Amino acid sequence: MQCNEQPYQAPRLFIAGAWRTGSAETRSQVINPATAEVLDELRHASVRDLDDALIAVEQGFGVWRGVPAAERQRVLTKSVENMRARRDEIARVLTLEQGKPLVQARAEIDVAAGMVQWYAEQARRVYGRIIPSPSADTDYEVRKEPVGPCLLLSPWNVPLILAARKIGGALAAGCSCIVKPPEETPASVAKMVECFVDAGTPPGVINVVFGVPQTVSEHLIASDSIRKVSFTGSVAVGQQIARLAAPGLKRVTLELGGHSPVIVFDDVDVDTVVRQLVTAKFRNAGQLCHAPTRFFVQRGIYPRFVERFAAAAAQLRVGDGLDERTDMGPLANVRRLRAMTELADATALDATLVTGGTRVAGQGYFFAPTVFADVGPDARAMKDEPFGPVALVRSFDTPAQAVALANSTRYGLGSYVFTDSAKLQRQMINSLDVGSVAINSTTVTVAEAPFGGVRDSGYGYESGEEGLESYLHTKFIHRTYLA
Ligand code: NAD
C-alpha cells in the first residue's frame, strides 16, 4: 500500500442523507479475491434500518419530483464530475474487492460516468404531447411523470456501471431510490453514491442498504412505498424478484445474463477478429452478462481461428489486478471458482481442451483463460451460462446452421457477427433471437441505446430512451373548458 492510500473500509448504510452503522445482527465479509483475505466486515441493515430507508425514500420522492429538470440535470452533471475526479481512488477500491485489473476498473468508472452523463442530458428532454381533440372546447394532453420510489438491486461483476445505469435513470426521471449494492463489492458503489450526495441530491433521494439479499428484497418489495424494482443478476433470483413484485403489481426491470453467440464467417481477417474477441471474452475474467461465450466459426477458417485464439488466450497475464501488468484478474468470488472447475470438468467430456481448464495455483480465485474446441451442441456448457473465462468453440458450414446453434439456448441477450457480407449481416440480424447484435464489433451496450434481453435474459430495458422511459409513467389529461 502506498502511503497516500487509505486502508480498505467496508461502507456504512446511507439513509435520509446520513451515513449510519447497520444495526442488524448479521454481517458479511468482504474478501479480496486476489488473495482470499478478508478486507473488512460489512454491517447489515436491520428491519428498523430498512423501514427508515422506506420513510426516507418516500420523503425524498416528495422533494425530488418537484425539482425542475434543469436542476436535476445540474446535480447529475456535478455527480459525473465528482466520479471523474475520484476515478483513481474508486478504481483501487473496486480492484481490491472485485479483482479486475486497475485499467479495467478505471475504464468502468469512465463508462459509468458516461451513462449518468447521458441521463443527465436526457433529464431535460422528457416531453409530453398535445393530441388534437375532436371538440373545440377540449384539450387532450399526455404527460410523463416519475414512477415513484425505486428499489435498485445491482450485482458484483460490474458494480459501478450496473448501479450507475439504474441510479442515473431513476434520478433523471425524478424518482428517488434505495440502492442495494452487492455485499461482495460494497465500497466502490458506496463511493460512487458519495459522488451523487456531494453533488447536492437532497436527503432521501438516494439511500443505500446492505443485508442478506433475500431478506432485504422481501421486506422492501412488500412495502407500498416501492413502485418499481430494477434487478440485474441470475435467472433464479430474477424469477424470485418477479414473484415478490407480483402482489403489488410493481413495475420490474430484469437483466438476467446471457450466453452470447459469436458467429464468424470465413471472409474475415482471422488475426484482427481474434484480437478483438480475446479482449472481449476475457475482460473482467469473463464475468459479464454479454460476454461472448459460444464461438461458431465457419469451417474454412476454423482450425486457424482455434489455434490463434487459444494462443492469444494462453498469453494473457493472469494476476492481482493491482499489478498494472495484469491482463486478467481472479474470479470475483469463490462460488465462480467452483462453478468454473465443475463446468470445465463436464465440458472436457464432450470437447477438446485447447488451453487452460484448471485453477491457477495460489491463494486467490484465479482460473486460467480456457478454450474448448469442437464442443458438442449438447454439452452442458453450451446451455449453462459460464460467467467466467471459458470460451466454447465449434465449427459450422451454412448460415442456417449458425443461426440454429446460436438460438439453441434459453438466453437471448447479446450476439456478435463478423462478416463483410451485407447479405449475411442482414440474415443474422433478422434471425437471431436476442436483445442486441454487434456486427464486426464487440460492443453491445452504450449509454445512448437500450440494453435488454428476451426469454431467460429478462425483460425491460436500461440505457437509451427506453431506459429512461422505464422510470416514467404516462398520464393522460382530458380538459374541457366551461363555457
Ligand atoms: P446469485 O444468483 O446468488 O446472485 C446474483 C446476484 O443477485 C448477486 O449480486 C446477489 O447479491 C443478488 N441476489 C441474490 N439473491 C437476491 C435476492 N433475493 N434479492 C436481491 N438480490 C439478490 O448468484 P451469484 O453466485 O452471485 O452469481 C452467479 C450467477 O449470477 C452467474 O452465473 C450469472 O448468471 C448471474 N449474474 C448475472 C449478472 C448480470 O450482469 N446479469 C451479474 C451477476 C451475476
TrEMBL record:
<dbReference type="GO" id="GO:0016620">
    <property type="term" value="F:oxidoreductase activity, acting on the aldehyde or oxo group of donors, NAD or NADP as acceptor"/>
</dbReference>
<dbReference type="GO" id="GO:0018462">
    <property type="term" value="F:4-(hydroxymethyl)benzenesulfonate dehydrogenase activity"/>
</dbReference>
<protein>
    <recommendedName>
        <fullName>4-(hydroxymethyl)benzenesulfonate dehydrogenase</fullName>
        <ecNumber>1.1.1.257</ecNumber>
    </recommendedName>
</protein>
<dbReference type="InterPro" id="IPR015590">
    <property type="entry name" value="Aldehyde_DH_dom"/>
</dbReference>
<keyword id="KW-0560">Oxidoreductase</keyword>
<comment type="similarity">
    <text>Belongs to the aldehyde dehydrogenase family.</text>
</comment>
<comment type="function">
    <text>Involved in the toluene-4-sulfonate degradation pathway. Does not discriminate between the sulfonate and the carboxyl substituents and can also be involved in the p-toluenecarboxylate degradation pathway.</text>
</comment>
<comment type="subunit">
    <text>Homodimer.</text>
</comment>
<feature type="domain" description="Aldehyde dehydrogenase">
    <location>
        <begin position="19"/>
        <end position="477"/>
    </location>
</feature>
<dbReference type="InterPro" id="IPR050740">
    <property type="entry name" value="Aldehyde_DH_Superfamily"/>
</dbReference>
<dbReference type="InterPro" id="IPR016163">
    <property type="entry name" value="Ald_DH_C"/>
</dbReference>
<dbReference type="InterPro" id="IPR016161">
    <property type="entry name" value="Ald_DH/histidinol_DH"/>
</dbReference>
<dbReference type="InterPro" id="IPR016162">
    <property type="entry name" value="Ald_DH_N"/>
</dbReference>
<dbReference type="Pfam" id="PF00171">
    <property type="entry name" value="Aldedh"/>
</dbReference>
